[in-house]
Design brief:
With 318 residues, the protein is an alpha/beta fold. Helices cover 43% and strands 14% of the residues. A 6-stranded parallel sheet has the order 1-11-8-7-5-6, sandwiched between helices. The chain has a 3-stranded parallel sheet with strand order 3-2-4, with helices on both faces. It has a two-stranded antiparallel ribbon with strand order 9-10. The protein binds nicotinamide-adenine-dinucleotide.
Length: 318
């Protein structure tokens, strides 16, 4: 005998089936490849039109093995899309004034269209003081106070790459953030805060955004409400399966080395049983962040080619 299911029963059955399906991966490498393709196409067009080219200068102080890997991937990315790339290493003992002077000279150099300041810096240097010295139109990491301020207006110039990468990954899922419950764990100046501003940048289509941090009480109460959960902390195992809402989209920004392996902040094996979509680590936010650096380098070049472009409607987030 066959039994007819009513709508409620059907919905419940679907929910049970949904629960059994492990989350799908959000493929950061594929998103990065698509962004790079778009960037490359735009560079070809602009090179032809303006008979000039974009060029990125990476400034490194001392030799740091961690930043060596970043330099390598920046160089590779630039070569892929047609951006001239050079890295310049200053001595470990360089003073803050000397570094600022160096940056100011590069600001004046029209053959350099983008400047990136590699972290970490030695302790005699205050990173924010140096970031303030980077010409806002060459600030491909969006760390200059002017660019940070414009983000507050919802009219961003150049925005920190990781924050842009998270937005791009959410967009790639086809999910509109409008009105969604988004919980963001982490409130750093480079990731959490700019991301919160991007999530809130539209007058009508913003997400309902909760920002959690080290002082947040009962973190799980906030993460469990999230339809989109973004974690940018740097603590492996912080977000466990029971802290995630059934069917949520989970974006794990964290990068941690545990027993020789790179992992995120989310316990992936548990989270994939609860989430509908999740970014892997590695292969999620990381590659898209690099792609966004390339996109920002082109955007910086465009602002230099035509400063009015900054104020065109296209740049306004709505
Ligand atoms: P940060 O150290 O500057 O900030 C950490 C944030 O986490 C702070 O807001 C802090 O309050 C919060 N926090 C710390 N402990 C917490 C806890 N127990 N509960 C809730 N919040 C807590 O770090 P960051 O520069 O923002 O980077 C965060 C992570 O993202 C790191 O693992 C970093 O390596 C990674 N990261 C990845 C990329 C990428 O491209 N994938 C880029 C940048 C940073």
């Amino acid at each position: 005998m066959t039994t007819q299911l009513n709508d409620e029963q059907k919905a419940a059955t679907e929910l049970i089936n949904e629960k059994k399906i492990a989350a799908q991966l959000i493929d950061g490498k594929a998103v990065a490849a698509r962004v790079k393709k778009e960037v490359k196409r735009e560079i070809v067009k602009l090179k032809e039109k303006h008979k000039s080219f974009p060029s990125l200068l990476a400034v490194q102080v001392g030799a740091n093995p961690a930043s060596a890997a970043y330099l390598k991937s920046q160089k590779k990315g630039c070569e892929e899309v047609g951006i001239n790339y050079q890295a310049q290493q200053l001595p470990q003992g360089v003073s803050q004034e000397e570094l600022i002077q160096f940056i100011k000279e590069k600001n004046q150099d029209s053959k350099i269209t983008g400047i990136i300041l590699q972290m970490p810096l030695p302790e005699q240097i205050d990173a924010e003081k140096v970031q303030e010295a980077i010409d806002p139109s060459k600030d491909v990491e969006g760390v200059n106070p002017q660019n940070m301020g414009l983000l507050m207006y919802g009219w961003p110039g150049l925005v920190p790459c990781t924050a842009l990468a998270v937005m791009e990954l959410i967009k790639s899922t086809g999910t509109a953030i409008k009105g969604k419950q988004v919980t963001l764990v982490g409130h750093s100046s480079l990731v959490g805060k700019p991301l919160a501003l991007l999530l809130l940048s539209s007058p009508f289509d913003s997400a309902t955004t909760t920002v959690c941090h080290i002082a947040t009480r009962n973190l799980a109460a906030h993460t469990r409400r999230a339809e989109i959960l973004i974690v940018a902390v740097g603590k492996p195992g912080l977000i466990k399966g029971d802290m995630i809402k059934e069917g949520a989209i989970v974006i794990d920004v964290g990068i941690n080395r545990v027993e020789g392996k790179i992992v995120g902040d989310v316990v992936f094996e548990e989270a994939k049983e609860k989430a509908s979509l999740i970014t892997p680590v590695p292969g999620g936010v990381g590659p898209v962040t690099t792609a966004m650096l390339l996109k920002n380098t082109v955007d910086a070049w465009k602002i230099q080619l035509d400063p009015d472009v900054r104020w065109s409607k296209k740049w306004k987030l709505t």
